[in-house]
Every structure is written in C-alpha cells, then in structure tokens.
Design goal:
about 475 residues, Rossmann fold, UDP-N-acetylmuramoyl-L-alanine:D-glutamate ligase, ten-stranded mixed beta sheet, binds ligand NAX, binds potassium ion, metal ion binding, multifunctional enzyme, NADP
C-alpha cells in the first residue's frame, strides 16, 4: 500500500520530528537522499558523476535549501554545480555550503542560453515543494519551458514546482520531471492523475517523519493488496461458494454492453453468470458464452445499468434488486435512476461526468477535487463509490481515507472498459468481497492486466487476459 499525506499532516509530523532532532538534521537527510538519486542517475546516463554539469533551480524556501545541499554533495563527487535563483531570497546556510564547494550563480539569460545549448546533464528543480502553489509565472516559467523536451535529466525535489501538493490538477504551467525525490511521505499529487504523470519515477526518502497511516489522505493499492483480496476458490468450493452473478445489461440499442459486462464477469472466475437483460442482447451473449444461463434463479450479486439507454422500468428494476438485500453494482444508466434515499449493499461506479450529475455540480468540480467528489457521493448515498478514470478512487461512507486502485496505462480509457469493469466488480461481490475491496480489486485487475499486456486491446480482448493475470497473482499471496 502506498500512502499519501496532506500538507498539514506532513508539516505537523515535521514539527514533531524537528523538536527531537532539529530542522537541520531533517534537511540533511533529505539532501543526502536527493543527492544519492541524482548521482545514480548521472552515473547511469554518463558513466560517472565527475565532470557532470548540474543546474539547481533554487526557490526561496526549504525546497531550495534541499537542492543546494544536494548539489554541494554532488560537487564533492566532482560535479560542476550552478544555481539559478527564483528570487533574491535563498536558504542562507545552504547557499554558503554551495558557495564553499565552488557552486556558481547564473543569471536568467546565462541560464536560458546554457539550457538551449544543451549544456546541463541534470536540472534539479528545487523551486517549490509543499509550500508551492499551482502554476508558475515569470522567469521560472521560462526556465521550465526551456528545459522541457531538452537533453537534461530533470529531477524534482519533493514534487514538481507548479503543482499543488494536495491536488490532482496539473495546472497551466509546471516543471515536468523525469524523476521526483520526495521526503518523508508521498504527497497526494504524486498518486493522482494528471499531476502524477508530471513527476516521473518517484523515490520516497525516509527522513524519519512520525506519520501514522490513520492520518493518510490517500492509499494506493499495490500488487500484494490485489493478490490478498482476490477470492481464489478452495478445494471444496462449488459454484455458489464462488458466487452466482445476475447481470442486467445491454438493450436493443446497445447489445454490446451486455456482452462486455458478461465478458468481464466470466473472465474474473464466477461460479455462474445469469444474464437477466434484454432478450436480443441475451442471445448474442449465449452465442459467445455458452456457459451463461438466461433463466432466472438464485443470484448472490447483481449488476444493473451498462447499456440500458432509456428504459421505462429502470427505477422498478433497481428497486426490486435493492429489495433482495443482495449486493449490487449500479453502473452507467442505472446511476440516472437512483432512489432519492440512502442505499445499502450497493457499489456505484460512475465516471467523472456521471458523478458530477449525481452531485449536481460541473464535471470540472469533480476533476478539480476528485477526493472530495467521491467522498461526498459516498456520504450522500450511503454506499461505496468507485470514481473511474485515469486514477480510480474508492470511498466508503464514514471514512475519510480514500483508496485508489493500481494505476494502468492511458489506453484503457475507451468505450466498453467500464462495462467489463462493472462485470468484474459484480463477480467479486458475488464471491463475498465487501464493496470497497470489490471495487479496488476489479479496477486494479483491469489496470494491471493492461500494464502487463501492452495493447491497445479492445476491452473484451483485455478481459480475455484476466485469467492469466489472476493465475500469476496467486504467487504474490501472503
Ligand atoms: N520543514 C522541514 O524540516 C523540511 C522541509 N523540507 C523541504 O521543505 C519544503 C517546504 O519548504 P517551505 O515551507 O520553505 O516551502 P517551499 O520551499 O516549498 O516554498 C517557499 C515559498 O515560496 C513561495 N511560493 C510558493 N509557490 C510559489 C509560486 N508558484 N510562485 C511564487 N512564489 C511561490 C511561498 O511563499 C512559499 O512559502 C518541502 O517541500 C521539502 O522540500 C525538507 O528539507 C525536509 C525537512
Ligand atoms: K520542486
């Protein structure tokens, strides 16, 4: 599990740590970790640190201090180090250390000229860290622009300047990095797209901040969580132990959605799938999956909504399934017909547009603050909500911590991905997983499969690769 903490939680932990060891010690730990990563990267790219030309883009606060101290360490290994100052203000002790090792200050024009000439092997972005605001202006924006796409290896200190540590937003201007060295704990921006992609490869340096996962803002699943949650059948499991899924998806207008939802469910290993939807969609489903049953009968979880379109009995169908008290995934068109009361036993799986409609806000509001949006939806509806997208967020009512699924490649964003995902989630509910785990395991399986089998595969073919991944995951089980 990867945890991310908000800026106030990190600042509070820093204060507790500083009271014990002093702020100088924390900064030295940060600088040592940063210099180690920078040195390794230089070594890998050019065979040695000696003779490397390193520019520190130096902000006015402690982030700038980290960068200067790290550069001083690189200078002691033979690098030539330069600094460009964002303002005249600079961390005094770090600046003196930088000057002592022969570090040189460059003005803006010299810096831009040398960047354009491809003169730097590495640019350390020590502009702003957790004290930063979204967006860059003035000469710093020019320097970030000039560096972008150039030959220098860009290493961000704590987080890329121009990002807001607590937000998923990428903003208008920022300093994209090839790598980020973050201190003490991950920040939410480093786990949330589109900000996350601007940070490159993230290394977490332990500087001894006393943080408790109970204070975390975000928790991202990794493979061990997926493997531990996956419901592998036992030696005596029958089809009811594995779970019977009832799927009402697809319509005469959208017959494909039924097939896609069933494809997701079938490839996630249910005991049985009953197709309860439109007759025409059902005949296509059975042709493709003869193991699917179209007769009504006992189910242990349901999926309603993908490809329904407009349907007169939407509300009554939802109510009759909710009345069974069995777990149900409510997806796509079913989300437009939710009863106006608190629900139970359901998992809602909206994308940003559907969640915006549910909350009666603009889509922009959801994208600007996805954690707020998914938490608010869980509180209002009373059930678990999975917000689908480049980062997939899951919130439960009564819980501040938001989880995210294992991230996957961007090409999984395509028509039909949500239908197969809903099918997987319903299979997991039928196997007895709690809605939160079903949502995280389903979304993680789809993303991880896409990462393991670089495509682009259409969603139905990606689903055909689930079984191989599920089999391989069993080796990761605790
Ligand atoms: N406090 C500590 O003990 C430690 C802090 N560390 C470093 O300190 C950083 C936080 O330091 P600071 O609190 O000094 O803050 P920053 O160094 O992140 O920012 C300094 C100041 O710059 C100004 N600023 C921010 N964004 C701007 C923008 N877009 N345009 C113009 N001005 C802007 C703000 O007034 C801000 O207070 C962390 O990110 C980390 O790198 C590490 O050294 C570890 C220890
Ligand atoms: K930075």
């Amino acid at each position: 599990m990867r945890y991310a903490y908000s800026t106030p939680a990190i600042r509070a932990a820093e204060e507790r740590a500083m009271a014990e060891v002093g702020d100088g010690a924390l900064m030295q730990r940060a600088a040592a970790g940063l210099a180690a990563v920078c040195g390794d990267r230089l070594q890998r790219r050019r065979g040695r640190v000696t003779g490397a030309r390193v520019l520190v883009v130096t902000g006015p606060g402690n982030n700038g201090g980290d960068g200067l101290y790290a550069a001083s360490r690189l200078a002691r290994r033979g690098a030539q180090v330069f600094a460009w100052l964002v303002t005249e203000q600079v961390h005094g002790a770090a600046w003196r250390a930088f000057e002592r090792v022969g570090g040189r200050r460059l003005d803006t024009e010299q810096t831009l000229r040398r960047i354009a000439a491809g003169d730097f092997d590495q640019v350390i972005d020590a502009g702003f860290g957790i004290g930063g605001r979204a967006g860059l202006t003035g000469d710093l924006a020019r320097i970030a622009d000039a560096t972008r796409g150039g030959p220098a290896d860009v290493v961000a200190v704590d987080l890329p300047s121009g990002l807001d540590a607590d937000s998923a937003r990428a903003g208008e201007t920022c300093f994209p990095a090839d790598a980020t060295v973050t201190f003490g704990a991950r920040k939410p921006c480093l786990l949330s797209e589109p900000a996350r992609s601007l940070a490159g490869a993230v290394t977490l340096v332990d500087i001894g901040l006393p943080l408790d996962p109970g204070e975390a803002e975000l928790a991202q699943w990794e493979l061990p969580e997926l493997a531990a949650a996956w419901p592998y059948p036992g030696p005596t499991s029958d089809k009811y132990a594995r779970g019977v899924v009832g799927i009402d998806a697809g319509s005469a207008h959208y017959p494909g959605a039924g097939l896609l939802a069933v494809g997701g469910a079938v490839h996630a290993g249910p005991g049985m799938v009953r197709f309860l939807g439109d007759e025409r969609a059902g005949s296509i489903v059975v042709q493709r999956f003869p193991n699917v049953v179209t007769a009504a009968g006992r189910c242990q979880a349901y999926l309603l909504g993908p490809g329904w379109g407009d349907r007169d009995d939407a509300r009554t169908t939802i109510e009759s399934v909710l009345a069974t008290g069995l777990p149900v995934v409510l997806d796509a068109d079913a989300l437009r017909h939710l009863p106006q009361r608190r629900l139970e036993h359901a998992l809602l799986t909206p994308h940003a547009g559907e969640l915006a409609r549910l909350l009666e806000v603009d889509r922009d509001r959801v994208e600007a603050d996805p954690r707020w949006a998914v938490r608010t939806a869980a509180e209002r509806t009373g059930v678990t909500v999975l917000l689908k997208g480049a980062t997939q967020y899951v919130a439960r009512p009564g819980e501040k911590l938001v989880h995210t699924a294992i991230p996957g490649p961007a090409w999984t964003a395509q028509a039909g991905s949500g239908d197969t995902l809903a099918g997987v989630c319903a299979t997991l509910l039928a196997a007895g997983l709690a809605p939160r785990d079903a949502a995280l395991a389903g979304a993680s399986l789809q993303a991880y499969t896409a990462a393991q089998h670089p495509g682009p595969w259409p969603p139905q073919e990606l689903a055909e690769r689930f079984p191989a991944v599920i089999a391989s995951l069993s080796k990761e089980r605790p």
